[in-house]
Write the structure tokens for this entry.
Amino acid sequence: MTNSIEYIKLAKEFADKYGIEYLDRLITLAENKNLPNTQSNLTNTNQVNQEKILEEVIAAGFQLNPWLKNLILLNSFEVVRQAITVVEENEIWGNVHNREGLLVEAILH
């Protein structure tokens, strides 16, 4: 399987799970931020910071898939932490049916 096919399958999986509008938003974020590819060589500081936020998300009980991981890495710590808080607050009221989906929605809004 080529890399292109893998990326297309991941995009379809993301769109099926979170909706096409979120996939469009993720693409727009990636294009507009001019951020380095998460698979490229990163400076030690940047890599440590990325690992830290991912650890926080995992510690909060979220299951990471490649798309969610990239979305998290495309946003600031503050945005991701606020999104985690949104999910946790909604859980108190029993309003969460898909934690990862709500996390995506909170990050993108």
Notes: The mean pLDDT is 82. The longest helix spans residues 3-18. DSSP finds six helices and no strands in the chain.
